[in-house]
Specification:
Length: about 260
């Protein structure tokens, strides 16, 4: 009997701790199936990110309800920090960095500042710090490849990189039919903006719809977007979300 009670208790606990992702939260339109993604890929990583409970509003870094909350379909359970740093391009770099960090591909974690400086994670993890006067690495501390130090590295990136530098690092996609989860719609500028594609679905006519996510200014939660209650976007139908004009092949890029 004790074993049965324990088993039932564990099953109930499992039900209460089940976490939604974009794969489980959103219903697919009739006639559409999810585009297959490679195991271990950036796309799979994005699809597996946990979402906060239904109804959670998008908040800024200081806890206020974000102006963009009107476009919230879901909020990704990803820290935003306590300062105004993790904005639109920053969260895209954060996601890419988090993915590579989770795969222990430390040598691949690197982002250019708008000045052109290559801020690679290996130097930072080895104790080097960026000197603003010389624009070079200076050895300041001990080796530390722990997660908290990785987040400090990302905050450094957020401070000096943006849409202008990120756009230069991405490869343009010439055909919108090639759209995949993990792709980025981006326009570099001051201000610029970008969205990241979280999921892609397709029908028998090879028509695609997709989920988009963004951060914004000031820094806010990573939100999965919707417009008029519909989280699925297309190239063909215009949307009223802010910077919706970027949902166009001309702005489509990939890591």
């Amino acid at each position: 009997m004790k074993g049965l009670v324990l088993t039932v208790s564990l099953l109930l606990l499992g039900n209460f701790t089940k976490v939604d992702t974009v794969l489980t939260r959103f219903t697919l339109p009739a006639g559409y199936t999810r585009q297959t993604v490679a195991s271990g890929s950036f796309a799979e990583y994005l699809q597996s990110l946990p979402l906060k409970p239904i109804g959670t509003p998008t908040k800024t870094y200081n806890g206020e309800i974000a102006e963009t909350n009107i476009f919230t379909a879901a909020v990704v359970d990803l820290s935003v920090g306590k300062v105004d740093l993790q904005q639109c391009a920053d969260v895209v770099m954060r996601l890419r960095g988090e993915y590579l960090y989770s795969k222990k591909q430390y040598n691949d974690i690197a982002f250019h500042f708008e000045s052109g400086f290559n801020c690679d994670y290996i130097h930072y993890a080895d104790g080097y710090r960026y000197n603003t006067k010389s624009g070079k690495w200076v050895l300041k501390g001990k080796k530390d490849d722990g997660y908290d130090n990785f987040l400090r590295y990302m905050n450094l990136v957020f401070s000096y990189a943006g849409t202008l530098s990120l756009q230069k690092e991405l490869k343009p996609i010439k055909n919108s039919a090639d759209l995949k989860a993990g792709d980025v719609f981006i326009h570099g500028g001051s201000p610029g903006h970008c969205f990241i594609v979280m999921d892609v679905i397709v029908n028998k006519q090879n028509q695609k719809q997709f989920l988009l996510a963004q951060s914004y200014m000031p820094a806010q939660n990573l939100q999965v977007l919707q417009y008029n209650g519909n989280p699925w976007f297309t190239f063909e139908k215009k949307t009223g979300i802010w910077y919706g004009e970027l949902i166009d092949q001309a702005y489509l890029c990939r890591f």
